[in-house]
Amino acid sequence: MHIGVIGLGLIGGSFAKAATRLGHTVSVWNRTKATAQRAVDDGSAVAVLDDELKSEKGSPRIFFISLPPANVVDWIERHEQYFPQDTIVVDATGVKQTVCKALEKYAFSTRWCFVGGHPMAGKEVSGYENACADLFDGASMILTPYPTCSRKTIEVLYALFKGVGFERIVTTFPDAHDRMIALTSQMAHVVSAAYVKDPLSPEHIGFSAGSFRDMTRVAGVDPNVWSDLFLANRDSLSETVDGMIARLREFNEAIKSSDKEKLVSLLEESKNAKKKILEADAQEKTDNIILK
Fold it and tell me: Which of 31, 82, 140, 288 is the most buried (most CB within 10 A)?
């Protein structure tokens, strides 16, 4: 299968490497042409795509768009005239409502099909230099197809994403995706970013272990990319942040008033919530989960 990877940061670069590892023909496009050529030179791709999405290997039939949130829609709209017949276009943006709504006008296109996507994988570092073929091994791939998307298209994507290493494919709606991602991803970054700003943080050596490391792990991400993600999902994220503030306030009030009974109750609730998470984690992994 000929796959075009657009954008060679950590995610796009890793997808190019993973697809090549699987035996696909991979052509690449990147705003910085030198990075695209680097992918060819190191064997992660076979060709560089020109601005009409052609290469010496022809035109891809699947495009994996891994660009910053603010650039995805614009790039697709500027290049959609060059998508060949029966092309499948998947994005890798961490928010789905804004992207899927903007591209909904193409939902009835008979020439190419857009499917919203979000690979649940990453590192604390970014850039092509940190890309690796095994980044998606064991991860989840989320898809948010329009109702007009054919079963055949979904089957092609399932086979592709399973092949490059994803363990679970989740099918959901854009709004459900954004609500969940506000909690499971974006909120974690907000909390980590706020946590490391404590004046004592630089003095942690000798006083910290796994808890400090876990809480600070995602605090060093790209500020421009993540601020775009936060703002693109501001309604869901702000609601989630409000909930966290309310729960933290409960703990703080109990601590200030030396209310051990209240603290025990709050910690017992947290313990039970964690137990439910572990029980869910232990369940058999299944595909085609639809969250409403």
Answer: 140
